[in-house]
Each structure stands twice: as structure tokens, then as C-alpha cells.
Amino acid sequence: MPEDRKKTRKEATVEREQLQEETTQLTSGAQDSENNKTTELQEESSLPLSLGYGPDFPKQLLLTKRIKAIFEGTPKLTLKLSKSLIVTSVSEDSSLSGILEPGDFLTGIDNMKFESRRHAYSTLKTTKGPSTVVFHFKRPMRCLLLTTPAQISKYLPQGAEIMPGYSYCLCFLVTFPGAVIGLHVKSYESKVYIESVGVQSMAEKVFCVGDTIISIDDVPVASVSIVNQSISNGLKTKKWVQAVVARPESEAALCRMLNALKVAKTERIDPRMSEDIKAIADQEIERMNQEDSQPEPRNILKGEPATDDESEYKRVTVSKLSTQSPICCDSANLKVLHLIGKKNMKQMPKMRTAIQYPNYPKGP
Fold first, then answer.
1. Where in the numbering of this chain does the PDZ domain appear (predicted)?
2. If pLDDT is split at 50, 70 and 90, which confidence band does 286 have?
3. Is 227 helix (H, G, I), strand (E, B) or coil?
4. Is the pTM of this model over 0.70?
5. Is 143-262 a domain of CATH 2.30.42.10?
6. Domain 59-140 sits in CATH 3.30.110.10
């Protein structure tokens, strides 16, 4: 009996030692796997970041720009950059307003080339005036005017004809961090018209109100759903889309476009106003604050009061047939605007303005 007990004790100690060895092997294996994961993560984080729009973005869609800016005082070079050095926003009070735009790929200033976002921020922060700074950046192409019938036929989908009274151009939508598409379209008679474009959006610099979208990435479009799906898929997969657009030029084409836009038009709720509206309001507030005597407020209620008792409150009754009309202004197409004459003119001019579309680069 005592010998059997000794054997069982020895066997138990051997089993314990084996279990300890297995547990140490498991813990060492887990530590090795964790160390391998951390080293892999460190290697991935140490990989160089692709600046700009990446190697897969077409180089012919990036226009190299060089702007020389002269700052008399200390410049306020405030802007927001993505990790890949793409400008996402420029404040209105910044000295860079009018020089850089959202979507620009800032490559450097003067003879210095930026290597990272931190490098760009530190360089711009240490720039002092008065000084002359040369900004180097690349701007995505927005519109390319098609001038000859051969160029137009090359990009038109099969079966589409060249319509008289229209100009044709290639429009490019390029997305970047924080960008908003801002494109509102409507379908009328199997054609897709641009109804409005959002302020400070990607579409504001590319499209005009009344443009007809013919195709997106060589796919013919005839409905709003196809346009939305094509733009969404293209921006997700390759960060840019190409649209063939017909722009009205003649009087008949403009009238046709206006009739299409007026059909069942609905006002958007709380649309974003243009940038100049805020500046106009600030000027009026400053002017009113500078005036010594403010005019006395006028009562909007007309007629004699119903009672002489001043303790009673005066109320305004709103008619049930009244409708709320939002104060808004779409990004206008300059071709559609009319000349407004003076008050003393007996007859308003019938001719449209002579303002033309921007001079877009012409196709090859």
C-alpha cells in the first residue's frame, strides 16, 4: 500500500510538470504571435503615405499651378489639409483665400517641397511678412470644352446626336476628404437637367444650372436614379467621374431649358445662401450701428385700434391661405439673367446680358 501511494504521488508530480511545460509553451506562443502582430503594425505604420490623389489617379486631370503672392503685412496662412496634403477648406479671413481652393494638392512653397502635413503646417506658421511667397500646387481639371464635331462625336454615347444651339464639354467631379457633391438634378422628357448646385460644393465649380447631363463615365443617363448611382459608384471606386454635358447657348435652347426647370419645381428647405449675402448683411449692420439716431419703429398694424385700452395686447392674425416663402438664391446661370433697368425707364430692355460662360480649356 505505501509503495502504491508513492507511485501515485510521483505520477501526479509528473503530470503537474507536464501541464506547467504546456502552459509555458502556450503563453510563449501567444506572446510570440502578439509580438509578430505589433511588428507587422509597426511596419505598416512606417510605410510612406501616398501624397495627393494617389498613384492611380490620372495625371492628365491635374493641372500644375504656380501663384506668386505678395504680402505687405504679416499673412494669416490658415487652412485645413488632409494627411495627403489636399486642401479641405480655406477660411474667408485667410490670406490664402483666392489663392488656394478646396481640392488643391499643395506641393510646396518657394523652393521647398512638403513631405507631410506637419511639415506644411510648420512652414506656413513660420512664414512672416512683408514677404513674397510662391505657392506650388496641383488643381484637378473641372471642365474641358469640346470645340469640333469630331471631338463631340468621340465622347457622345452611341445613338446620340449633336443638338444645334448647344455647346458640349467634359466635366470632371473629383472627391477629396470633407467634400460635398451638392448636385441637384431633375428628369424631364428623358433628359436629366441640373436644377441647382450647392454653395461651396464640388458641383459649384463644375456645372451650371440648366446643363443637360448626357452620359457619366461613358454610360448614357436618362433618369435621376441612374445619375445618382453612376456618380456614387464612380467616386467610391476611383475618386473621380467624367460627365458629358450639353450647355444651352442659343435663345431657343435657353427657353427650352427654362421651361424644363419650371415644371413642378419644389423649393428646398433651408438652403445654404451664397457667400456674398453674409457680407452684405454685415455691411448693413455696421452702417446701422454707426448712425447716431435710429428711426422710430413703425407700427405694422394699420387702421384705428378697436379699443382705447392700452393694457390689451395687439395681435396679428395670419391667414390660413398664407404660405411660407424661403429666402434663397440658386447658383445662377449667367446666360439666364436679364438686364434690370432703372425705375424711371418706360420700357425694360428685351435683350439678355452679354455675359458669357467662363473660358474653359479646349479639348485636344
1. 75-141, 179-249
2. confident
3. helix
4. no
5. yes
6. no
